[in-house]
UniProtKB/TrEMBL annotation:
<keyword id="KW-0805">Transcription regulation</keyword>
<dbReference type="InterPro" id="IPR047923">
    <property type="entry name" value="ArpA-like"/>
</dbReference>
<feature type="domain" description="HTH tetR-type">
    <location>
        <begin position="8"/>
        <end position="68"/>
    </location>
</feature>
<dbReference type="InterPro" id="IPR001647">
    <property type="entry name" value="HTH_TetR"/>
</dbReference>
<protein>
    <submittedName>
        <fullName>ScbR family autoregulator-binding transcription factor</fullName>
    </submittedName>
</protein>
<dbReference type="InterPro" id="IPR036271">
    <property type="entry name" value="Tet_transcr_reg_TetR-rel_C_sf"/>
</dbReference>
<dbReference type="Pfam" id="PF00440">
    <property type="entry name" value="TetR_N"/>
</dbReference>
<dbReference type="InterPro" id="IPR023772">
    <property type="entry name" value="DNA-bd_HTH_TetR-type_CS"/>
</dbReference>
<dbReference type="InterPro" id="IPR050109">
    <property type="entry name" value="HTH-type_TetR-like_transc_reg"/>
</dbReference>
<feature type="DNA-binding region" description="H-T-H motif">
    <location>
        <begin position="31"/>
        <end position="50"/>
    </location>
</feature>
<dbReference type="InterPro" id="IPR009057">
    <property type="entry name" value="Homeodomain-like_sf"/>
</dbReference>
<keyword id="KW-0804">Transcription</keyword>
<keyword id="KW-0238">DNA-binding</keyword>
């Protein structure tokens, strides 16, 4: 068990180091040597976990995939809101998640399957929207696939703008504003009135998730900025 825990920590340290290097230099300019130096591990340790720089980058990309075990809600639209707000919170605090999003938007990372991150988010949101439709929470004309892809793209743009303007300090507020504008066009009025869209929602839900699933939440725990 101790060896397994050490391997998990080593893998995480490599990914965190790679996240910083990719964030500073971009995927194309980053080198394995820089990642090794930043992580403080041997080449053998890195290649035990990853076969190439590309595989390291894919590991970083996976860090920003949707958290699939958030607390269940009776309202599926509230569950949809929670996914967006938790992602906003993680983007503010976890360098690994930040780097995953940056890689997904990095035009220089052509050999990476950057589409996988967008596809994962769209698929997750489509599933939640399908559940919401089954519970009568959506307006009758809503296409769940189009709506999921719209929300994924809109979130990507909002977080990029927040990053450029204030290093994502206002991201919770911006995502709240986005949802307040989009949800009235898809939600039934009664359900809309019951939703919690507050900017602080992400932190509260993440703490609830971490307390209820400590083992699962370990890999997604935000790193507090110094």
């Amino acid at each position: 068990m101790a060896r397994q825990d050490r391997a998990i920590r080593t893998r995480r340290s490599i990914l965190e180091a790679a996240a910083r290097v990719f964030g500073e230099r971009g995927y194309a300019s980053a080198t394995v040597e820089e990642i090794l130096n930043r992580a403080g591990v041997t080449r053998g340790a890195l290649y035990f976990h990853f076969s190439s720089k590309e595989e390291v980058a894919l590991g970083v990309l996976e860090a920003q995939m949707p958290t699939d075990r958030l607390p269940e809600r009776s309202s599926k639209l509230q569950k949809l809101v929670d996914h967006g707000m938790v992602m906003a919170y993680r983007l503010q605090h976890d360098p690994l998640v930040q780097a995953g999003v940056s890689l997904a938007l990095d035009q220089g990372a052509r050999e990476l399957d950057r589409n996988s991150a967008f596809r994962a988010w769209s698929d997750q949101l489509e599933q939640i929207l399908t559940e919401a439709r089954g519970q009568g929470e959506l307006l009758p004309h809503i296409d769940v696939t189009d709506t999921a892809e719209l929300l994924t793209g809109a979130f990507s743009g909002v977080q990029a703008m927040s990053q450029a303007r204030c290093n994502r300090a206002d991201l919770g507020h911006r995502v709240s504003v986005l949802l307040r504008h989009v949800l009235p066009s898809i939600s039934t009025p009664a359900m809309l009135a019951a939703l919690d869209l507050s900017p602080e929602r992400g932190e509260r839900v993440f703490e609830e998730y971490r307390e209820s699933s400590p083992a699962t939440a370990t890999a997604a725990t935000p790193v507090t900025r110094s």
